[in-house]
Each structure stands twice: as C-alpha cells, then as structure tokens.
Request: fold
Amino acid sequence: MEPQNRNWFVVGVAVFFLASLLAPLNATIDYDWTAQPIGELAGRQNVNSWVMRAGFVGLGFCVLIDVLQDPKWRWRDWPFLLFGLANIGAGLYRNYSVDADTFLNDPMANAHGWFFIAAAFFLLIGYINRLSSDENRQKIITSCAIVWLVSCASLAVSFPNFAGLFDRLGDVGLLVWVVLNPRAAYRDKQSNPAQNAK
Reply:
C-alpha cells in the first residue's frame, strides 16, 4: 500500500473543516458557532445547507476510499468504513436540525443527530482498534485522541450552551490524529516485514 493513499482521509477531514468554516458565512439562519453544533448548518431551515452537507458527504466518501484502497481490508478498518457511511448519512438526511437541548429531550426528532452520534461512536471504536497494532509513540497519540474525543462529547452534553465549541474541538482532535498517526504506516509495516526488520 503506497503511503500517499492515507491522504484521502486527510483530504476528507480538510474538506469538512473548509465546509465548517464557509457554511456559517453563507448561513441564512442566526447561527452561534459556540452554542450550535456544526450539524445545524446542514438542516433544512438553512437555505444554503448544501455547503455543510457537502462537507459531511465529502468526509464520508474520502474515508470510504481510504479504507477500501486496502486490498486486504484488515478487520480493524470496519469502524472507519461505518464512520464514513454515517457521515454520508448525516449529509444526505436534510431534516430540520434542532438545538442540543431539544435533541436531548426528544432525540427521535432529529435523525441527522443520530447519524452524527453513530459517526462519533464508530470513530471511537476505530481509535480503540488502532491500539492493538500501533507502536508505542502511536499508542500515545491514539490514547490522547480517545481521551480528547470522549471529553469533548461529554462536555458538549454537560454544557449544551457550548456544544458547538466542543463539537469543533473534537474535529480538531481528529485532524491532528489523522496527520500524526496515519493508518498507512501500519499497512506499510505489515506488507514489508523484511524491510521493517532491518
């Protein structure tokens, strides 16, 4: 597996970040980035929701390409595959988004929110699966990513008035992890045992 193949994951996260920066500028709704999650920019009440929806779908497809490029499709890749599918679902399901308080009180009213929760869950499982094969330095990076993701999710639930801020901080953690701990490193090590033994 060529090392540059990992760039699809990086590209996907970059596309998502770009969309999350541009979407508030073109939003037709009153939007507070510290209080409102990114997903609200993809809701039907925002006429220009296509910007953020494209970010979700772009991230999902890039992750899928990254995973499916591996001809051996190792067992630990399945969480990232489902992470990609959940993001595609979050982007395609253009329902009326609700704020964090409403979602907690009536979660079935917002299917987009369930796709988002599924994406976060499968990302967490993907992180955990990495621990079984990472080297010591990578284990530290992945362990920090797990703590960061769980902390951001917990804080978003505990302090819904800052859900948007913690949502974005969680995304920053994903970007840092993808850049510092690429899955391609694991593939190259497994596919070239003789070179690794040198």
Q: What stands out?
A: The chain has one domain: 3-101+108-183. Residues 1-5, 184-198 have pLDDT under 50 and may be disordered. Residues 3-101+108-183 form one domain. The chain has nine helices and no strands.
